[in-house]
Structure formats: structure tokens, C-alpha cells
Amino acid sequence: MSRKKGNSKRKPKSASGKTTPKKNTSGAGASGRPRRPLSRAKIRRRIHAALFAVFLVALAGAMWWVSSARQGDFLTLAEQGTEAMRAQVVSEPSAGREHVSGSIDYDHRFPLSGPHNPTWVEPGVYDARQPMEKLVHALEHGNIVIYYDEPGAEVMGRLREWAGLYDNQWSGIVVTPAAGLGEQIVMSAWTKRLQLEEFTAAPAAAFIDAYRGRGPENPVR
What we know:
Elements: H1 40-88, E1 90-91, E2 124-125, H2 132-141, E3 144-148, H3 153-165, E4 173-177, E5 185-189, E6 192-196, H4 201-211
Parallel strand pairs: 2-4, 3-4
Antiparallel strand pairs: 1-6, 3-5, 5-6
């Protein structure tokens, strides 16, 4: 007797002879369970996360643009003040670079070189007087050290802006108080000094641009 053919369907085979599983078109996950739609709370969280990421990227771009614009303005100002700065700057021979501990009796109130403490003052704006022995080490690194007393809000704002532009350990700006200067500003680099009886932005910027990053320990410019 001949066998009757059943109506069961055979699974399709691939070219290699292996059975090809049917695709899941019912919306179920790998486990066979149907996928649950995202809740409104999860959707909101994902949207907020995406918007926050976009905000951070936009903020970083805006900060970079502002910094670049300020640096461009600074360099333009420095170029304008170069001639006046060179006519006023004082140069001194190096008095050495030894590392010593304890206090040091320098020949000048604002020394430009000489023995100094093994540690240094980091770039930034300070409200309290910093140890001279550590400031000289900052000069050796290539930083510009600026001394102030009562220069006025506008001048301090300018110095803070410049210190924010240049804060690298080897080419930054240290702004520190020195009692008795009044409105004067004293600027120092390794073996270089510029004393301004009245702050003038152009020669001050020119001094920073000329000597920042050129200390003897690790010149970077």
C-alpha cells in the first residue's frame, strides 16, 4: 500500500543543507518573549541624556571660541606694546639656580633668579602673599610672576583674565600680592623685570608674550 502524504510542512534548508530557522516577526526578543515598549519615563530620560550631551558639546565649543578670541585680542595688544615694553624692561644676569631649604636673603625685593626652594608656586591668582623662594622657582619654570597691591578692579580683572589664558606649569602666569606697591604693578620673568608705575595693558601684555615659557629649566617657547 502506498503511504499517504501528510500535510506537515518541512523546514526550509539553506544551501549548506542546514535547516534555516524562521525569522521572528512577532516582536519577541531572543528569549521568545515579546518585547515591552519603552515607558514614557525611560524615553524622557534618554531624551534628556541626549540633550545634555549636545549641550556639553556646544558649551565646549563656545568656551574654545571665547578662549581663542581672548587670546587673539591679547596677542594684538602685545604687538602694540612691544616697543614701549623694550624701552622699560630691566635685565639682570642670572644669580644661579640652586635648590636650597629655608629662607633666602635676596638682593632685590623682587628677585629675578638665584637659589630657591625645591617647590614652586603654581600658576594662578593669589589673594595671600606667596613665599619668595617658591616664586623664584616659578620663574625658573618659565612663568611670569606679577606683583600687585591696590591696582583697582579693572586691572585685577585684566590680570585674572590673562592668568586664565595661560596656566601651564612651564609657561603660565602667577599673580600674587605685595604690600606697599599701591597702584604699581611689578612683572618678572627669569632675569627680566618690568615695573609699571601705572598699569598699561599693551606693554604688560608684550612682556608676558616675550618671556613666558622661556625659563631655563624647561623652555617651551
